Amino acid sequence: MTDHRPWRGVLVATALPLRDDLTVDLDRYAEHCSWLVANGCDGVVPNGSLGEYQVLTPEERARVVETAVAAVGGERVMPGVAAYGSAEARRWAEQAAGAGCRAVMLLPPNAYRADERSVLAHYAEVARTGLPVVAYNNPVDTKVDLVPELLARLYGEGCIRAVKEFSGDVRRAYRLAELAPGLDLLAGADDVLLELAVAGAKGWVAGYPNALPRSCVELYRAATGGDLATALPLYRQLHPLLRWDSRVEFVQAIKLSMDLLGRHGGSCRPPRVPLDPEQEAAVRAATEKAVAAGLA
């Protein structure tokens, strides 16, 4: 990746392989990062929600970033640096910079329903590290909504360079382009990838490439390249899986698909619990259908 904006392209929010005793398997994680890049992905995002960062120790969290950088190079690694406190989030950004990363991804304050002034102060604090910050808008889980007007202000004040948009509201892409045309929009939910690509997305912070990197990359390249004749049928085939990325059980679903495809997904740390039988059957059927269609 040579672009000075390392958040562009397909960046995989990496699932984290755990051993049977739920300790982190860093060797397997390194191999997974390398495998994703070898299969066409542009980079990885460790310590996102899919990477279960909330239940990692500080030592584990730091080593995950260092492992990814050693595997694929710092220019391909954009860690999540979310934390309850702004000082802690800044420390994680400094750790990422020290490891050689070129950008970080940051949720708004999420220990409480933060107001606009708190959001601005939070992003300004992390931006002081000097690394480009990609905002992560996930109002479903954080209860803080980075609406286009607020994102435009954050961009205008130099706090962010891009946004991972997970609201599911594709109409925001057009408003955001009007208010802050220099701010890069990244698709943040797998099941609106095509809609946001058509609306001008410059990247995809993606979940399902953990299991199906080649077909997901093909989808992204076709969609952003305007090749809808290729993108639309592929999107329809993948959508039964992609929509799991927007469900509460997204980590378990993606890890199950990985297991079924010969990758190590494995268990999750509590409080996440395994899929119930109906959910497991649905993910299994959709994964097997994707394999039968030659998408694996």
Automatic annotation (TrEMBL):
TM regions (residue ranges): none
Cross-referenced SUPFAM superfamilies: Aldolase
Keywords: Lyase
UniProt-listed Gene3D superfamilies: Aldolase class I
One Pfam family cited in the UniProt record for this chain: DHDPS
InterPro entries with a match to the protein in the record: Aldolase_TIM (IPR013785), DapA-like (IPR002220)
Protein family according to the UniProt entry: Belongs to the DapA family.
Protein name: Dihydrodipicolinate synthase family protein
Organism: Streptomyces griseoincarnatus
